[in-house]
Specification:
By secondary structure, the chain is an alpha/beta fold. 32% of the residues lie in helices and 22% in strands. The protein binds 5'-deoxyadenosine (5AD) and iron/sulfur cluster (SF4).
Length: 476
């Protein structure tokens, strides 16, 4: 198959942080609007909530082209993989799914297979895709979702592999169509990209420069969601606490929380936060705004000051603890969760012990824990590392034991108490059970088969607290 290479990824360009980023008003040319009529699509989504939100836009664009969502992904006319590059095992899963799709394409040669998201933004991944996965028709990145109709058109027209991966700062796409997965909970992007450059992380290269949406656009989107019956929004960004810094105004993330609280939305959550940028205004907004939920994901990565420095996290253990104390004081009973990496290059046992100490002192009610994964092109990839894989796995195991105890303790504090649950649907935890999330983001199952409760906030009395969830009874 011949290739149409419109642009290839380039890490040098991906590092650039110079230009103003444009805001692009979404529009679909008429010639693309009928391309998908009578055809089906499926989008596989991997990785963070940012990718989930992007997939909602991709689905919206495909449906505007006339495609309908297919029942079986392996028989659809267009299959897209929205990929994640954060760790090697995330990528390995995707290579595996590609293997399955190869068989499906043999059965159905007209199937159009596309790879998008973070993986194509890496030079090596795109090289491997081109060299080894010849059945992939379409490769595009995180910066050109709006080009999707054009790229599909070109792939159909030329029967060639179409590659367009734009590196650089990125842009802001406004007013693109979306097919939201839920009718009561919505992702709302408030900013894109990341300028933190933590030394282990690929995201600043794959997602571009930190760029905030205008506050008016965000507020208008949330107001519209309220009008459409949505109960909860999760504000999204790689570092939401840096919201507005790139716009050069004094309007900060805390101000945005106060303004969104006035829209009438019942619940506001946000992710992800960077501890250095979490400020007092945000903490006060959490205390004062009824709609901002008493729960925060505050990735710490390590409890050791030397490792934090090598990670370029720009805060110390002591500074992090000060913010935790301020949060606990302002929002009594707040549930705090985190991300932790073990086995950063040359992390000693003593440094790892400092992380365990921090976990005990904060009293996390949950954590995503990872073994450090080397990402080509990042500064940490060049650091010497003499710690064995076995040692790293052992550290992860010891950390997880502590973290799991925190999950359980966090759930046990709600035993025999009433919690307010936004109902998501039927529970997989047994017949006649439904589930949703409490204000503190605790997954809660309760006995009911009343589907009309979906999307409503109900009161549940907790009767059992397990490590991963609560069980309770509906209050009358
Ligand atoms: N190795 C392991 N974990 C990583 N994360 C980011 N990059 C890496 C990496 N190279 C983790 C961090 C981050 C979360 C989203 O993924 O903990 O907060
Ligand atoms: Fe990666 Fe650090 Fe940015 Fe988070 S803040 S996305 S860990 S560079």
């Amino acid at each position: 198959m011949k290739n149409i290479k419109l642009a290839m990824p380039n890490f040098k360009e991906a590092r650039m942080r110079l230009k103003e980023v444009p805001t692009i008003e979404y529009e679909m040319k008429d010639e693309y609007k009928k391309l998908g009529i009578g055809k089906t699509y499926h989008v596989f989504t991997y990785g963070c909530q940012g990718n989930e939100a992007d997939s909602e836009v991709i689905s919206g664009i495909l449906e505007q082209m006339g495609y309908k969502r297919g029942d079986d992904p392996y028989t659809c006319d267009v299959v897209l993989l929205n990929t994640c590059a954060i760790r090697e095992n995330a990528e390995n899963r995707i290579w595996g799914v590609l293997g399955n799709l190869k068989g499906a394409k043999r059965e159905n040669p007209d199937m159009l297979i596309g790879i998008c998201g973070c993986m194509p933004q890496e030079e090596n991944a795109t090289k491997r895709l081109l060299e080894t996965y010849s059945f992939v028709d379409l490769i595009f990145g995180t910066h050109n979702i709006n080009s999707l109709p054009k790229l599909i058109y070109q792939a159909y027209l030329s029967k060639a592999k179409v590659v367009e991966v734009i590196s650089g700062e990125g842009s802001i796409l406004e007013h693109a169509p979306k097919i939201r997965e839920s009718h009561h909970k919505a992702w709302v992007n408030i900013m894109y990209g990341c300028d933190e450059f933590c030394t282990y992380c690929i995201v600043p290269y794959t997602r571009g420069k930190e760029r905030s949406r205008s506050k008016d656009e965000i507020i208008a989107e949330v107001k519209e969601l309220v009008l459409n019956g949505y109960k909860e929004v999760t504000l999204l960004g790689q570092n939401v606490n840096a919201y507005g810094k790139d716009l050069g105004s004094d309007y900060t993330f805390g101000d945005l929380l106060y303004d969104l609280d006035k829209t009438g939305i019942e619940r506001i959550r946000y992710t992800t936060s960077h501890p250095r940028d979490l400020d007092m205004k945000t903490i006060m907004a959490m205390a004062e705004c009824k709609s901002v939920m008493p729960q925060l994901h505050l990735p710490v990565q390590s409890g050791d000051n030397e490792i934090l420095k090598k990670m370029n996290r720009k805060y110390t253990y002591e500074e992090y603890m000060q913010k935790i104390e301020a949060l606990k004081k302002a929002v009594p009973g707040i549930s705090i969760t985190t991300d932790i990496i073990v086995g950063f290059p040359n992390e000693t046992e003593e440094q790892f012990q400092n992380t365990l100490k921090l976990v005990r002192n904060v009293g996390y009610e949950g954590a995503f824990t990872f073994i450090y994964s080397k990402r080509e092109g990042t500064p940490a990839a060049k650091m010497e590392d003499s710690i064995s894989d076995e040692e790293k796995r052992d550290r992860l195991h010891r950390l997880n034991e502590l973290v799991n105890a925190g999950y359980l303790k966090g759930n046990q504090r709600f035993l025999n108490k009433e919690v307010l649950v936004l109902v998501d649907g039927e529970s997989k935890n047994g017949e006649g059970m439904m589930c949703g999330y409490s204000e503190h983001l605790k997954l809660t199952h309760f006995k009911s088969n009343d589907l009309s409760l979906i999307g409503k906030i109900v009161k549940v009395r907790v009767t059992e607290a397990k490590t991963w969830f609560l069980i309770g009874e509906l209050c009358e």
